[in-house]
Amino acid sequence: MSKISNRVTAAAVLLIILAIILAGCNSEKKDVTTNADSPAGTTAKTPQAASPEQPAKGEVQIIIENFAFSPADVTVAAGTKVTWINKDDAPHTATSVDKKFNSGGLDTDDKFSFVFNDKGVYQYICTLHPQMKGTINVK
Amino acid sequence: MKKSTENNGTKTNEWDRRDFLKCVGAWAGTGVLLSMTGGILTSCKMEAAAPGVLSFAQISDTHIGFSKEPNPKVTESLQALVDKINALPERPPFVLHTGDLTHLSRPEEFDTLSEILKGLKTDQIFYVPGEHDTFSDQGTEYLKRFGKGTQGKGWQSFDHNGTHYIGLNNVVAATSGPAPGTFKNGGNEGLGALGAEQLDWLGKDVASLSASTPIVVFTHVPLWAVYPQWGWGTEDSEQALALLKKFGSVTVLNGHIHQVMQKVEGNVTFHTARSTAYPQPAPGAAPAPGPLKDVPPDKLGQMIGVTQIRYVESNKSLAIVDSTLA
User: What is the pTM of this model?
Assistant: First the structure.
C-alpha cells in the first residue's frame, strides 16, 4: 500500500468520525407549549408533523385548502397547540361539534389556534361547508 | 286561442306561441326570455314592453364583504345592478333576495347591503338567508335584521295578485350550529336542509290553498340535486316538493351556485340566479366551488347579474328573464 492511500484512508475515517460527532450535536431542542394563554406566533417554531402512530408535541398546523382540512385526522399530545390556516379563496371555519372550540369565519390567510389541554376525541366541521370534517385525537 | 283539458286531475294548456310572444315584455336588451309551462321550455327574443304585466325581480348572492378575484368591488357591481332594476319600465312591486347577502355575516356587511338596497325602487324586499349570513353566529345578526315577520329561523309566505310566495331557510344547519349527532352518522354532507319544524309549517301553510294557485318558492340552496358533492342540493327537498304536489304551477327560485341553471320536472320549474358579486365554476369543472378565477375584467360583467320574473296572463305562467351586468 502506498503512503498516499494510507493518508486518504485516514482522512476518510476522520471525516466519518467528525460527521458522527456533528450529527450527535445537531438534535433540536423541542419546546412544549403547556400554557393555554401563550400568544400565537411569538416565537418561530417549526411545526411538528403529526402521525397516527406517534403523538405530535409542540405545535401542529392544519391547512384548509380545496374545501378540506389537511391533515383531516390528527393525533396530538395533551397541551399541543393546533393552528388552522385557511389557504382557500372561500372562507371556512373549524368548529367542534360539541362546542369546545370555534374559529369563527376565517378568510383567506386567517389563522386560528387552540391548545388542547384535555385528552379526548374532538370532531369538528366547517359550519359553512359541513361536508368538511376533521378529528383531533388528544392523548 | 287557448284550450285547456283536464286529464286525471292534471291540467294541460295548449297555447298559441304568437300570442305568447306578443304579451311578453322587454328588458333593456340584454336578457333571454325563457318560459316554462306544462313542461315545455321555450326560448325567444324579447318584444317591446306590454303595459300592465306583473313582474318582480330576484337578486342573489350579493356577498358584501368579499373583496378578492375575480371581483374586488362587489358593492359597485351591486349598485350597478340596482340601477339596472331601477331603469325598468315597470317598477317591480317587490324584490326577492335569495341569500348570501353578506360574505362573513359581519354587522358592517349587513349595514352596507341595506344601505345599497335602500336605493332599490320597489315597495318591499323579501329575504331568505344563505349559509354565509348565518354560519358565524347561528343566524343571530341575520334574524335581528331580517327576522321580523318571519317564522322560526326566518321562513315566511305572502300573497300577491293571486300567487302564493313561500320563502324558506334551507341553511338551517348553519343557522343552528353543528349538532353532536350529525358527525357520527356521516351526517350533513354540506347540503342544504329545511328541517322538520319548517316542513311542518310548510304543510300547514299550503293546506287550504286551491290547486290552481300559482306557487313561487324562493330559497337559497337549490331544491334539486345540482351537484351534491359540492353541497349543491337540499337533503330534504323531496319532502317539501311532496307537500306542493297538488299545485298545477310551482316555480322554485334559488341562488347559491352563482350561475344560471334550470330544470323542469312535471309542474315544477327550478331556476337558479347569477350572483351579483362573482361567478362560480360549473359543476365539477374545478376542484372546489370557490370563486371562479382567471376571469378577464371585461368578461366579469357577463357572469354576474339579476333575474326578472314576469307573470304572463295569456297562459297563466311565469316567465324568467336572466340579465347580466354587461
Answer: 0.78
Tell me, yes or no, if B180 comes closer than 8 A to chain A by beta carbon. yes
**Which site among B110, B131, B136, B235 would you substitute to test the A interface, given the most A Cβ atoms closer than 10 Å to its Cβ?**
B136
Total count of domains within chain B: 1
Residue B127 in grid coordinates: 329575504
Q: Give the 3-state DSSP-derived string for B57-118, with helices as H, strands as E and coil as C.
A: EEECCCCECECCCCCCCHHHHHHHHHHHHHCCCCCCCEEEECCCCECCCCHHHHHHHHHHHC
Interface predicted TM-score (ipTM): 0.79
**A9 to chain B, minimum CA–CA distance in Å?**
57
pLDDT, one tens digit per residue, over B168-182 is 999 977 666 666 555
In a domain, A127, yes or no: yes
The total number of structural domains in chain A stands at 1
Structural domain boundaries, residue B61: 50-282+289-324
pLDDT at A49 over 60: no
Q: Does B176 touch chain A (CB under 8 A)?
A: no
- Of the candidate ranges A8-12, B124-128, B146-150, the one whose mean pLDDT is the lowest: A8-12
CB contact under 8 A, A130 and B179: no
